[in-house]
Amino acid sequence: MLKLVIGNKNYSSWSMRPWLALRANDIPFEEIFVPLYTDQADKDRILSFSKAGKVPTLIDGDVTVWDSLAIIEYLAEKFPEAKLWPSDRAARAHARAISAEMHSGFVPLRSECGMNLHRPIRAIALSDDARANVARIEDIWAECHARYGKQGPFLFGTFSGADAMYAPVVHRFRTYAIPVRAEAQHYVDAMMQLPAFQEWTRDGVAETLRIARFEDV
Fold first, then answer.
1. Residue 85: Cβ-neighbour burial (10 angstroms; 0-12, 13-18, 19+)
2. Angstrom distance (rounded) from CA 159 to CA 146
3. pLDDT for the residue numbered 217
4. Would you say 36 and 207 are in contact if contact means Cβ atoms under 8 Å apart?
5. Where are the transmembrane segments (predicted)?
6. pLDDT at residue 46 in the model
7. Rounded to 10 degrees, what is the CA torsion of 24, 29, 31, 36?
8. 4 touches 198 (CB < 8 A)
9. Is the peptide bond prior to 108 cis by the omega test (within 30 degrees of 0)?
10. Tens-digit pLDDT profile for residues 32-80
11. What structural domains and CATH numbers belong to the chain?
């Protein structure tokens, strides 16, 4: 069985992405939880799974993959029936492009609005760069809805790897009371109704471990 090493569900947006890709597609896997930012023993345990020293890490027999997007790509190849990427070539290229954009971009938004599921919902003053990130994400969601919305409620109709990549942003928008314009709100609603998204959220909220530097935002 596949093994997925993850960090705290309350905080680890990168862990959430491949976890969601697996759970939303009913792909069996063993979840291995290692608390983040605790002691050396936990750091060493993460290193025992991957020399990168980070989560998530996917283990499939003698294959180890240690990056969220790389894991999703691996799952798409191993489980083609899950259709983690659209079957149409142009749509597939679009899905990969916006997933890569999420993977490497939106640093101001991430820095200013860290994922923290049990944080009381309240707004903060965002920088101009973070507000530009929000606008760009809304544009992505609105454009996908305009192009593929007839096929279903997610970015490319049915749930895809791109949705796994953007799911944590839904939590950031909710937690930091960031308003979403009407053309993109449908996506927030669809994601929050996804059973796998709800399961991760419940588990994250139920966690009792608190990391002080993430609680002061």
1. buried
2. 16
3. 63
4. no
5. none
6. 87
7. -70
8. no
9. no
10. 999 887 777 778 888 889 888 889 999 999 999 999 999 999 999 999 9
11. 3-82 (3.40.30.10), 89-200 (1.20.1050.10)
Question: Is 80 exceeded by the pLDDT of residue 189?
Answer: yes
Name, in order, each residue with C-beta under 8 angstroms of 124's C-beta and a sequence gap of 6 or more: 112, 113, 176, 217
Check: CB of residue 165 under 8 Å from CB of residue 69. yes
3-state secondary structure of 43: helix
Query: CA Rg, the chain, in Å?
Result: 17
Q: Specify the pairing of strand 2-6 against strand 29-33.
A: parallel
Whole-angstrom CA distances from 41 to 5, 36, 148 are 15, 11, 47
User: Among 65, 61, 62, which residue's Cα sits nearest to residue 5?
Assistant: 65
For the entire predicted model, the pTM comes to 0.95
Percent of the chain topping pLDDT 70: 99
**Residue 194 neighbours by CB distance under 10 Å:** 20
- Categorize the per-residue pLDDT at 199 as very low, low, confident or very high, splitting at 50, 70 and 90: very high
Token pair for 129: 């760069």
Pair 163, 191: CB distance under 8 Å: yes
Amino acid at position 95, single letter: A
What pLDDT does 77 receive?
Answer: 98
